[in-house]
Each structure stands twice: as structure tokens, then as C-alpha cells.
Design brief:
Helix content is 34%, strand content 23%. The termini are close together. It is an alpha/beta fold.
Length: 638
Amino acid sequence: MCGIVGAVSTRNVVPVLVQGLQRLEYRGYDSCGVAVYAQGNNGTQGGAQAGLQRARSTSRVAELQEQINSTGLQGQLGIAHTRWATHGAPAVHNAHPHFSHGAGADAASRAGRVALVHNGIIENYEELRVALQAKGYVFASQTDTEVVAHLVDSLYSGDLFEAVKAATAQLHGAYAIAVFHKDEPGRLIGARAGSPLILGVGQDGQEHFLASDAMALAGVTDQIVYLEEGDVVDIQLGKYWLVDKEHKAVAPAQRPVRTVQAHSGAAELGPYRHYMQKEIFEQPRAIADTLEGIEGIVPELFEAAMNHAPGQNAARVFQQIDSVLILACGTSYYSGCAAKYWLESIAKVPTQVEIASEYRYRESVPNPNTLVVTITQSGETADTLAALRHAQSLGMKHTLTICNVATSAMVRECSLAYVTRAGVEIGVASTKAFTTQLAGLFLLTLCLAQAKGRLTDAQEAEHIKALRHLPAALQAVLALEPQIMAWADDFARKENALFLGRGLHYPIAMEGALKLKEITYIHAEAYAAGELKHGPLALVTSEMPVVTVAPNDALLEKLKSNMQEVRARGGVLYVLADADTRIESSEGVHVIRMPEHYGALSPLLHVVPLQLLSYHTACARGTDVDKPRNLAKSVTVE
């Protein structure tokens, strides 16, 4: 969601900060800003007066760059931020970075001493705000972040590191912060709890960096230290050091420097109009990469985690567990819903799927023999991380993640992992990340089935064959794009839509409805088709298009009956049908035939036309496809 970049160097860091913000734009944001310490006329850099200077904008980073060019903003110490509004509307006065605003008799001399950026949400900010106002601090924004800037200032007595440590002890909630003080112009402090933050180590110690994502530092450094929960880091020229959540010094071996090749070249659109379209058409390659080298179903496929708990090798865990709990949000939740059908029908393992943001706030019955599976594209989704930790606190130690980022917090915190290889996904609406998650979950299903003795050699060979054919099958589905564009012309004039599916394809209908909502702003709902007569049928008119996912499976005849219920009420059907379903186009029934029936893996094929339908409908309506309003790519706040 929000993005942080910070730097201390012997050079002007503003170009590095702006470039970092540009690399984080894909996350989504509604304001951005940069703050530096400017040395003034007596220093080595330009600027009329020494002190804190900043530029902020509610437009894009490109407009921020224009401000910087016109003002000549520069400095060797600075922080930058892209904000997705939580507290306070998207407005310049609420944009980061925030400055402190003095207090007491010497308020004038204390004004503008601290500059700070923050990701996350401070839950006790109102209480802190009242206390700081009583001390004379003046608030210029409605944000919870400004409270932290004032709090650090109120605790400062010559050592910023100590002030930040003292401030974090008073904060409740989730945060990643980067902060500097005008009296210590060679020092940058970072802290994290519940939101990601990394340290970038520069060459020869002449510069160091902070960021919320390694991608922000692509092209600047590939030497990364991942900060852990509660860490506070002190960064200066030529050195840095950390303390943990107990404020005890952290040895370098405890937070090793890792070489991370961030994906900086994925932002080329090539022949495509939008990143979402590009990423839809990258799915054959993404699936091929995710499945590369798989010769058989072996538990070791799931041992890619960076930290393994004792006794947590996959083969042993898969034999011990007797149930699966899936935790995820949004699109990832729908992939988990599809996986439930696989896990119970193929592996015969009882499976529960929970919305991560709800799971930790209800009473549940923990089972120590449960495999807790988290699904997340970024590996930094705040709700899913919190749900994982809650499950662990209940004694469920067997944890596995399906994730697209090998260096993410989720991979580090789970004892087992399957890292998908979708590549960087820029469009906010997930496409290739979703289908690669499904591929990983199907592999997990097969591994569990094998471990439980429920998969014969012949069945394994058949499933492997089907997986290997997926890229070619997806390519054939993408060839349906011209037919889907014709549907999109109809949908662009509607304001409501209904999506229907049954069994394994009900989650695919839910994902199709979500995509349409996200980028076209058309209200869309998905239902298990058998539920039509229990209420939703009241909504069906000729102005309510009904999209139906119709594979040739055991529920096809039931689904045909549900379709007749729609037609009897004047509803217009848009049907994605397998070739052998004997569903024909007629008045009020529009049919696109899928190239082939794909059995258990059919959801990976049927979701692609739904992605294309949403994409082309959004194009026809003129919405911002890659950056839909009010949404962010990586949701790092609860």
C-alpha cells in the first residue's frame, strides 16, 4: 500500500528517492512527497537556508518531480513516501512527509525539527494527540502519522535513536517509520512493527537506504537486510546498527545482508495498452515458470522457506497433519476457496477457508495437527500476516505459504513455502498472481494426497501431464479475446452484473465479479447458481447481465436448470461453455466456447475470459485500468 524510501549519502539523494517512488507507484497511492535536510549557503549544496525542506503532491510522482525541478530541492539526507489515505482525506496537508511543529515557550526554535514518513495505522493516535496538544504541539493534518512526528520531537534530547526507541514504546498498532532530525543531518532512523521495512546497504559504506520494498532500491543496491518485528535501525554514513523489540543490540549474523535481485525491468509495457492486459497475456509463461522443473510430486517442492523450524520438513508435516486451514484476503481468498474443492476431493483432507481479516477476531477451535496455509501475492498483506501469527499463538505450528515474493515477511515467517514465479504484477487487479497461486495450490493438493497414500502413480502421471499442458491451454483461451471484446461492449453500458458458478467454479465466479467491480466500477455479485431461487433471482431483469461459468462437469445439468430460471425472468445470459456442453447461442443467450474441457484444472482456464471481460469493459468505460480508484496493490494496513 503506502511506500517508503529513505537515504543518507555523500551525494544528492533526491533522484534516488524519486526513482524509488516511481518503482512503488504500482502499489497505488493518492499523494506523494519528499523531504530532505538542506545544508544551506554555508554547506556544499544549494538552498537559501539550512533545515528541513519538502515537496508534496496529490497528483502523480511525475508532478512531484516537476516541483522538485522548479524549487531545486536537494540534500544528502532524505525520505520520501507514497500515501494511500486512511486518516484524513487525500490532500497536500495530509501528505507525507510530516514535520514536527514545536511546543512550549521555545516553540519557534523547535518548529520543523523532525521529518517523518509512516506506513500502517497508529491505533492510539487520538490519545497521543490529546496529550501532545496539551504540551502545545500544533497539528496541521488529520493523520495519525503527524502524532508520531510530534511524539519523537517531544522525546528528543540530543539523540534521535533514543527518541525513536522511546516513541515506539508508546505506539499501539502497525507501523514502519523513517525519520530524521535537523540537528543530526547525517543520521536516518527506521523502525517497524507490523509493516515491512528493509535496510539497503550501499557500496563502500558511503550511503545506506531504507525502503518498504526491495523494488524501490532496484538499480541502487542489491544488498538488503530484512528488519524483523520490533527492530529499530540507526543509519549513518559508513555504518548502521540495530536493536530488536527488547532494545537489545542485534549482531550482524542475526540480520544477515542478502543479495536480492529486485525486478526493475518488468515495467515495460511493450505492445500492450495497460499492465493488466500485459499480465493477462503473460499467464502462459508465468504458469510455465511456476511449474518449471517439476518432474514429479515431491514434498520438497514446499521447502523454499528462508527459516525452517526444527522438524518442519514438508514430508514429515504432510504425514502428521489431519486438516488444512487456509487464510487469505481478496483474490487470494478466492484461490483458497477453489483449493478447498481440490484438497477435499483429491487429498481427502478436511479444509477450512477463512478471510484473514476476520479469523483473528473470533473464537475458534485450534487443532495442533492443522496445516495453516497462507496465500498472498506480496507476502506483506497485513491482515494475513496477523492471522498467521494468531494461528501460531494458538499452537498451530505447521505453517505453509503460497507466495509470489521469496524474500517477503510471509515466506520468512512460515516454516514451509511454495514460491510462485509470476514475476512482478503492476496492475492493481491481480491476474497472473491468481492463476499461479492456483497452480501452487494444486501441487500442494497432490503432495498431500501422495503423503496420505491417496494418489496412485498413474493418477500422479496424469496430473503432471495436465499441468505441463496448461501453458498451451491458456494460450488457446487467450485467443478468445475478440469474442470477449464484443461482450465487453454490452457490459460497458450496464451498472449491475451477476456471476454464477457451481462447485469448483463458484470461486471463479466470485473472482470474476471482483475483477469487474475493481476496474469497471460496475456493481457485480457472484452466487452459487443453486442459490438463485433463494433471493438473487429477484434482481434479474434484461438490464442485469448474468455471466455463467459452464464447464462440462457433474453439475452441468443442474446449472442448465439455473440458466433456464434466468431466461424465464427475461435475464440475458453470457455463458463460458466447454465445447461438449450442448449449450447453444440463441436470443438472450450468448455463448463463448472454451477450447477444451480441462477437468480439475478447469478453473485456471475459465478465469482468464473473466479477466479479459473486466479489462475490455474497463477500457470501454474509460476507467483507470491499472490504478482503480480507492484501491492499492499491496495492502499493508489492517
